[in-house]
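Risk register update: the risk that structure generation would not scale has been downgraded. Supporting records follow, first protein first.
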Amino acid sequence: MTEDISIERVGVNDIHLLQEISQSTFVETFAKDNSPENMKDYVENKFSAAQLMNELSNAGTEFYFAKNAWEVIGYLKLNQGEAQSELKDKNTLEIERIYVRASHQGKYIGQLLFKKAINQFEVGRYDFVWLGVWEKNHKAIHFYSKNGFVPFDQHIFQLGDDKQVDIMMKYTGKD
């Protein structure tokens, strides 16, 4: 039930919780489809405490936790302006990450995090919100498609020594 879930902004004092949820959900999501070496390299570099603190300290980046009474069960990362991984347009908002622990998937936690992102998009009056999703992550592509996102381009996502294709999708809020 989602009424027991809170969405809370992540602060610098939450860095170790952010690191743990970032690492664990990434591994849960992608380890089965990637080499252990590439996973280890990516997780150690992209989810180190120093890297996450750098991202958390960026004024253009916001992180949010999905929490139940006793644990962090998912998180969201949003980027605007120069903090975006690509585009870097002041009129767009990037959803860089939405991850939910495997044990809590199918319980609408991802939808709550998604709604937070769409709320930030609407409040910020951006032209569109966009994201990149691995072409082999059919579950995520389906999730974003059913929520009104459409493909508009693609880019390379580097996972260790593996160049993977991400489908770039956007949502304008218009029919």
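Supporting record for the second protein:
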Amino acid sequence: MKPGIFIKSTALLDGTEFEKTVIFVTEYNEKGAMGFVVNQTFPRKLNELEEFKHIIPFPIHLGGPVDQEHLYFVHRRPDLIEGGVPVTDKIFLGGDFQTTVKHIDNRILTGRDVRVFIGYCGWDYLDLDNEIEEGSWEVMEEWMLFNAK
């Protein structure tokens, strides 16, 4: 397995917090795997958080149950956001968040360019492989991460 894939939950996870979930896997190595739920929005927008109350409304996605005290983001604009780590040849994890927020507020970056998450999903080494093998997750051919929203 490699980073940059999308997985979706199967019926084995129905009735759990991962029911009908699509996850974008951003890291996969000997330490484990990390990813973000991409098909669930958080009930509050970025400007509803105290630190960002002076910017325009921008959606936050519920990235996962781990570390919901922090925001994470993926983007496809390395020309505007420095410091991102490549996940695929077109999608980057993280980078300069202050610059990202400034570009969101100035409407230079939109939902077509960046996704902000609260929390993430994490697995220890080989745990995700085992969950895929047991049938809890299936690897998807593709999924549109950045859409027209």
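The CA atoms of residues 10 and 135 lie 7 Å apart. On this basis the risk owner (M.S.) recommends closing the item.
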